[in-house]
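Researcher: Batch entry, complex prediction.
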Amino acid sequence: MSDTVSGLLTIAVLVAALAAVHVPLGSWMARVFTDTRDWRVERLVYRLCRVDPASEQRWSTYAVAVLGFSVVGVVLLFALIALQGVLPFARGASMNLDTALNTAVSFVTNTNWQSYAGESGTSPLVQTLGLTVQNFVSPAVGLAVAVALVRGLARSSGAEIGNFWVDLVRGSLRVLLPLAVVGAVVLLLGGVIQNLTAPTEVTTLSGGSQVVQGGLVASQEAIKELGTNGGGYFNANSAHPFENPNAITNLVEIFLLLVIPFSLPRTYGILVGDRRQGWAVLGFMATLWGLMVAAVTWAEVSAASGPLGGLEGKEVRFGVWPSALFAASTTGTSTGAVNSMHESYSPLGGGGALVHMLLGEVSPGGVGSGLYGALLLAMLTVFISGLMVGRTPELLGKQIGRREITLVALALLVMPALVLVFTGIGMVAPLVSSQMLASGPHGLTEVMYAYASAANNNGSAFAGFSADTPYTNLTLALCMFLGRFVPIVLVLALAGSLVAQRRRPANAGTLPTHTPTFAGLFVGVAIIVTGLTFFPALALGPLAEALS
Amino acid sequence: MRHVDNVIKQSLAGLRAMLVLTVLFGVLYPAAVWGVGQVAGRDQAAGSLVSSGTRVVGSSLIGQQWQGDEWFHGRPSASDYAGDTSGGTNLGPGADLEAEVAKRVGAAGLDPSTAPADALTASGSGLDPHITPAYAVAQVERVAAARGLDVTRVRALVEEHSQDRIAGFLGQPRVDVLELNLALARLSAPSAG
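Model: Structure tokens for the complex:
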């Protein structure tokens, strides 16, 4: 069988699995967030946390709860990492304080950028009690915010958008946990390790010695992908054979990182009482994902015709097609896990991964963040097309007026502003340029990739860039924090503004938002906004490198 | 003051929630998966370790550094297959990578015009346990000569250890170097040391 047929079949199996699972999963999530009853274990959690699950919150209280929970998460994780040396199972792991802060912010913001190497930077205690826990709760925060925005669209003339604590607990307990258990067991049976052994040295057949790693990896690997987190237990991430031992686990991991974001449009359609709206969002996400998979695969397969076969930074058990599929999926979802080294990709392959992040991670985006990012773009599309044809901009009977479009525009501008400003500073500051592995256009791509990864909460890297310095650790941490929470607060404000409106019935002047025409416009707006924002920088980076 | 009270109230709820959820997701969940592993997948959970006689000599999933003509060699590695520092070279296409490849060609004693791609490139993990069947075949004569074995015998061994794509279409054809070398060691002790 040729590589092409094998690659196309792999993609076909993935798409079929996603198509089959997104229906029950999307419906399940809609039930989870509208269920009027709490599970017994949930009631216990609410009692221990001393929150009242029956009381709903206005957007401002919801936002304070999100921020309070997340800041507490940063502080606890930072303390755990900083103190790991004196806690049990230290095993010599250590991190500088600036690296520890970067890591804490990184995992709380669902970024999972890693300035450290997993083998030496983190003790098993930090991996399990700290990082695995954030791998659950940070996507649950994204899910909660997305559901709150959808409630803003679905409810009429209200004031409250839900209860953050209920959304957080239900999202992590009823959605993430069962899927993570199944995923972890499948990965474990495929060869991902799950043990309590310390790294042990063995004498090899030829008389050398080698350290064989241990750790609770399978449990972390499953939620790392499922929660679109991406932080590797080991430095090589999902290229490491103990994280991703064969072509089946590879496909399972790609499936896990796509499945919730691709199921959420259905949840959205059900919650707003019009499934066609969900189809339009799904069509938008799937079109962009398909385009980027095609682009990155084409670039890598073309490069593979040379003597090196495109295999630098790639594993033999995967080969070019499954590596490109992973790269295009991880950068479209805010996951940032890698099964091959993106910096060693061809200029257009690596550039494609970068562009996929710069699209704003809506194809299909992170858990929750993909849906609310897509809905922001949908509102922008409604507004622009409303201006073009002279109709009142409305989405689902809610007017996109001055206040709404201001919030949408601000939320969409945070990421480009962070990426361009910090990349620009990086180009002139010797603090940053001295950390680059490459020079010229490839060096620009390296730095831009780092800040795009941070501001989009992706976490993948052109890993030649030595990011473990105080300046880069702190600026990247700032980008991750602002890139996550400024849009979240604006989205919640938008939800508050929408929920207060009465839902107007559609009339002859309403622009339908469920048609293929609208989905096409929607894709066009995403591409044009990204193109206008980033084309100059991309021309100097990956495009210049590809042409030279 | 009402706002400040609210911030404090929500943050304290956040602190309590973090502690409760840490027990659920940081203790109970990994422990449950560990328990399943102990029952249903002990070998995999432990790291797919392989032994020669009673001695553990590595993991079939983790590539190793092989010295000497009498062994099949793995791919070049950014970390020389150190188990505690995984990662790739991160070299992009360009002069630095070309210089590195030239060094690898010299080290492996290969003809660059016919060498399989995996013999010239480092993996992403630095621990790739596999090579392509083509690279294994390219090493048959050297290994057979060093061990004083019949070339056809060694070639048959390579064939036996060549794995096809999983289910006929997933991943790539490959040879696990450690398993191949273990079989080789069972076939004969190396004549040189």
